[in-house]
Amino acid sequence: MMRKILKNEWTVKIGSAVIALAAFCMLWQAVTVFTGMGDFLPGPAETFAEFFRRFVKPYGKAVLPMHMWSSLRRILIGYTVASAVAIVLGIVMGTYRIADAIVMPLFNIIRPIPPVAWIPLAILWFGIGDASKYFLVFLATFLSVLQNAYAGARSADPVLVGAARMLGANDGFIFRTITLPCAVPYIFSGLQNGLTAAWGQVVASEMIRSSAGVGWIIIRGMDNNDILQELVGILTIGIIGFILAASMRGVEAKLCRWTTRGK
Amino acid sequence: MNDMKVRVKSLTKKFGDLLVLDDISFDVKKGQFLCVVGPTGCGKTTFLNCITRLYEPTSGEILVDGEPVDLRKHNVSYIFQEYSTMPWLTVEENVAFGLRIKKKPEAEIKESVDEVIEMVGLQKFRNYYPSQLSASMLQRVVIARAFATKPDILLMDEPYGQLDIELRFKLEDELIGLWKKLGTTIIFITHNIEEAVYISEDILILTNKPTTIKQMMANPLSRPRVVTEKRFIEVREQVTELIKWW
Fold this sequence. Notes:
The complex is a heterodimer of chains A (263) and B (246). Chain A has eleven helices and no strands. Helix content of chain A is 78%, strand content 0%. In chain A, α4 packs across α10, α6 crosses α7 (130-153) and α10 runs antiparallel to α11. Chain A is mostly helical and 263 residues long. In chain B, 35% of the residues lie in helices and 25% in strands. The longest helix of chain B has 18 residues, at 165-182. The chains are: A mainly alpha (263), B alpha/beta (246). The A-B interface holds A 159-160, 162-169, 173, 177-178, 181, 184, 256-260 and B 52, 54, 71-72, 75-78, 80, 82, 84, 86-89, 97-98, 101-102, 129-131, 142, 145, 149, 155.
């Protein structure tokens, strides 16, 4: 019976995740009960209860779902535009040497700069409203996705390209049927990394200047010395990030059924 | 003359100062199963790459049906040493790949794919991805893809080099069956003399670099062939003697 349960991949995955989460919460609870940290660190039960309470009781002028939406909207706009531009540019750079030669030096200079370093300039260029946040999310996503799309386009196996050419395929056919499919798993890696970077960037920018959003919840919690509020903000980031990453993996599994990651 | 499928005339290929192919001339008849053997590194693959125009010959010419070879015009298929299945396509889609390049109608694609998949015994695996297949199945998919396009010429570059002996024998028999059924002109490169004697109708023996033709030999064995029979061993030893460069 036990062997049968362990053979089911999903049962093992979900079971392991539940056990790991339960162990983490128990450790967290133990720390708050048995150590001095309990004086200022709320336990998991209190944090989760506050998380759900804030669905109806506002932080500032908005309830928690509205703050989530503020952050998500900033991410979705910046992330979507950046991903689209980076995928196209990365593939063009990976396919055409001249595009690579023109863009790569610039990219290599911009890539090592942490996106948070652009915050002052973003505020100067785009003001303290949402436009600067879109820009910062765009930048964080763009760098990550471009790098992967570029690597993906260059990963086309020469044996496969040769096989297609022998069968009479022209450049357009090879691009559509070999270069693009080869690039897809790399692009998804870039999109996953880009999502993490975008979250980090939106929270950082909201912490600096905003009136709503998950980053704002955390920074306002810090200002008011309200650790429970900070923990709710952190928990919210974790939950939304998890849902977005899982959704992305679902799409990847559909589009990349042939890869190990897609299985 | 009308029987002639491929005519190689004074083919010479140099890479810088390195002379690889030195004034090679021979003919391949329509429906001929020719094996090209020679010492390792003698330029067998270079020769195939000249036929497919992957490399431009330094001098000389290769004619197919009396005209300079042109991959857009002549239906040439090439099977590499490496497995060249597309990982993102199922077996069925892989087999149809060449036909889609040639923009064949869907009905014809379906018919050809069904026929060839059955010939190579992959009916049960038609919806599998390459990552779910064994090495011999992968090479069968590639062979099926090549035959599905009904090529005028099939070029094979040590296609079974990576397989163990049992699978190699099995696929060699399958290939002979397909060749007999479809009458395709096949140029098969191998360094395995036993393989060459087993499958070929004619054997082209090349010398060490700079490569010239040592001998074009008609295979005297009738089919079916048994590798342990005295006559088979004699022919194999005869080819071995011709190929020896040491």
